[in-house]
Amino acid sequence: MDSFPPTDLTLSGTRWPCPPLYASAQSPVILLQLLHTAASILSDLLAHVAATWSLVLRELHQVAHLVRARFVQLSDDRPSHPPVTRVRPHSRIFTSAADLPSWFDTPATRSCCVRGRTRCVPRAVFDALQSGASRVGVPFPMDSVFLTAGPGPHVVPAIDLRILDALVADCRFGISGTLALFRGQTATEPRPNKALRPWLYRVHLASYPNLDLLCAIAQNGLIPPWKDPSARRGLRPTPANYPGARTGAGLVVDKLLADYYKGRAIIATMEAFERDPTFQSSAFALVPKKVKPLHLDDRIIHDLSAPDGLSVNAQTASEASPDATWDPFVSIARRICELRRRYPGYTIYAMIADIAEAFHHVPVHADHASAFGGRLPCSSHGIVSGMAVLGWTSSPGFSAVFGKAVRHYLRTGQYLVLGHMEPFWSFHWVDDIVLVDVDVDDRLQKAEKRLRDGVKLVFGSDGWHEGKFTTWPRVFHAVGIDWNIPDE
After folding, report:
1. Per the domain annotation, does 29 fall within a domain?
2. Which range marks the domain in which residue 62 is found?
3. Which superkingdom is the protein from (predicted)?
């Protein structure tokens, strides 16, 4: 925050007379040029120059961090080590960190076996859904309901749909009650995502600035910062999907149903969803990911910014969302330069990781999930997401609460290197993480182990995907930039 008095900010170099308190901020060089000025106007002129110079210094103070970042070399009081001579270094290092157990591994429990068939829900949820179906008077065929997803593209499970549709249409359940039931939320166990464990956060992230918000989201789901919660209503008639989503309907449905089978979303007919006045259906679009054709890889866009003025994003007070700023890219280059200075002759490596489906792990409170709905392309069925979907203006901020918790865990750890305690270093940008370190003893393995533990602590085991990271190369691609450590 700006520490200067409010009155200071109203002054300018064109307003006379200026108060004498600015004399302490004047430049001696400027004053020397005024020694031969007539005495009658000298005091007035000095005050004017002092005020102008004070404003210059004040503005410089406000941008000083930018100036330092661009021109001042990084330095600290940590020790530099004697140079070493190494043989030709390996282009890549592999450690045994992947084989080491983690305190924070979570078992996969989003399934059960009933009558010899694997189901896509835990047994407690299966029983609760059976009880709910009985209450609303819809059949519950034990041998064929809520089966786990089979191979190949997902298709809408007709039997599951019939049961969930009846629950959503019943006022005793509705969208929020059905989603809570499907996620296994009860009065004694309200967590919407069972992989998030707030009791571990309290122990291992005790000094994290956003600890309370992190635990609250894990315990009950995030509450969106609506501009006017009581006035939130869904648009009728619901908008149609974009042409790309209709053309690639099979791809869109396949990806959306993947979240259903993971317990993050519910499906029903649009007719049942629209009975809830707060249900908002936003259009889906399908676009290529990077340069790959749609049939190989694609990205679903949930357009929560349309229609203008009536969209989910328009109803969101985005300024009340958590901070979503991350580390500057230049910090990677600085880290390389710092390690070169402190460890001359040692080989520097990098590790690149990507939190798997980062946004999908952040749950939305069941009472507010009706805002994040959409129509399945070329269908009369819809889906309601129970997570902070990509495309919502507040998603980056709430996702950052979890991503920065991983960063906090990494950076608060230390380890002994060449006789000195060193903190772990990491770069974070949304769901991308970069580690840069020197190959000394088992330093790379310890850094990788700390990262794995941090991701599993915050997101559970599903947050770590072995196919989403690159192990300790010297030439790598991260945050859209090609890095070549030997040539940096």
Report:
1. yes
2. 6-71
3. Eukaryota
